[in-house]
Amino acid sequence: MLAGKVITIGVTGGIAAYKAAWLVSNLAGLEAEVHVMMTRSAKAFVSPLTFQVLSGHPVRTGLFTAGEDAPIPHVEMAARSDLLVIVPATANIIGKVAGGIADDLLSTTIMAATCPVLFCPAMNVNMYRNPVVQRNLAMLRELGYHLAEPEVGRLACGTEGRGRLPEPEIILEQIKDILSRAGDLSGMTVLVTAGPTREPLDPVRYITNRSSGKMGYAVARAASRRGARVILVSGAVGLEPPPGIKLIPVETARQMFDVVMEQFPTVDMVVKSAAVADYRPKEMAVQKIKKNENNLILELEKNPDILFELGRRKGRQLLVGFAAETGDVEENALSKVRHKNLDLLVANDVTLPGAGFGADTNIATLVYPDGTVIPLPKMDKLSLAHRILDEVLTLRRARNIL
Length: 402
Ligand code: C5P
Hints:
- The chain is of the alpha/beta class and 402 residues long.
- The protein contains 13 helices and 21 strands.
- It folds into two domains: 6-181, Flavin prenyltransferase-like (Rossmann fold, 3-Layer(aba) Sandwich); 189-398, CoaB-like (Rossmann fold, 3-Layer(aba) Sandwich).
- The chain has helices at 17-29, 48-55, 73-80, 91-98, 105-112, 125-129, 131-142, 168-181, 214-225, 253-263, 306-313, 329-339, 381-398; strands at 6-11, 33-38, 83-89, 117-121, 146-147, 151-154, 160-164, 189-194, 199-202, 205-207, 229-234, 246-249, 269-272, 279-281, 300-302, 318-325, 344-349, 361-362, 364-367, 373-375, 379-380.
- It has an eight-stranded mixed beta sheet with strand order 12-11-8-13-16-17-19-20, sandwiched between helices.
- A hairpin with a 5-residue loop joins strand 6 and strand 7.
- Helix 1 (17-29) packs parallel to helix 2 (48-55), helix 3 packs across helix 5 and helix 4 (91-98) crosses helix 7.
- Bound molecules: cytidine-5'-monophosphate.
């Protein structure tokens, strides 16, 4: 699977630089074309000769070094690479990329890259915990870079804590995952709904729910990175839309219904992660409702079930629903996946810590109409998004709709 892939390894100046040698050697052994770039401080830890011998290619170190083989090495390597892996990634390179600085060969190559980039941070625990580093890592995640999360363990400085480079075998698995998913959704259109709906009571008030939109935005980002054309129909959320997607903002369930029905005939799959309000106020007051001595009784009427309607209309499209439950997760999920004619339902118990609204992680169970139930471990929402897309692709392949 790695044979012929062009992988550029960027080595920065941390003690874990020696572990990059194992990775380069193994990637070359799996017949990838491996090129190594080193920052100035990386050369203080490992000799470029080590990487040159292991990769079988000259090591690039400078932006302007005369005599190296390509006249503009950062542009050439950025364009040729299928993947860039920064290993180890120091707080410095993470900060530079998060801040848009490109002042040496490696940072400039990352700036020019259009392929996936995997950062493998490794540093002292206090550096790792520093809010500036955490903010920069969050920025990289948001910008769509991949991260190999550092592990807890004994650090080179003699302390214990998070900041250890994951074992190279784990990084190698992540590289395989990224490359096997790259472009596997190209040619497909994915419709994603995200966030809450708002159901107005009067010109200044509405009924809504706790959905943050993070799960749907993660699905949109993951699908777009894998080459799909993505239409994101989003309720009001405070999130930056992923680059390169078509965003259609909506407010109410009925607006979401109209947009989704209009787009449905043109799409290959729908991932409905929005938390659609089941009811809306029967009347919307034209003027702000005034307070008086009495209690106020609101009459609510039912919203259309968008997903149920899609299930009724669907042809070749694959439908994925979400279900936030507060008990009897499997039982409820199974009856929903069948009732709504879905291909997959992603159920989660929102009462568990680390699952559900607002969290960056989720604990989901995949439920299929044939009764197959796959509980997944706790994972970040982007990883869950990729897992869901993997499942849908497997279903498509099984049905020969490619
Ligand atoms: O039945 P329940 O609301 O739990 O189902 C949740 C799933 O149905 C979600 O995927 C949600 O986006 C979708 N849904 C919908 N229209 C509604 C209510 C829920 O599409 N009115």
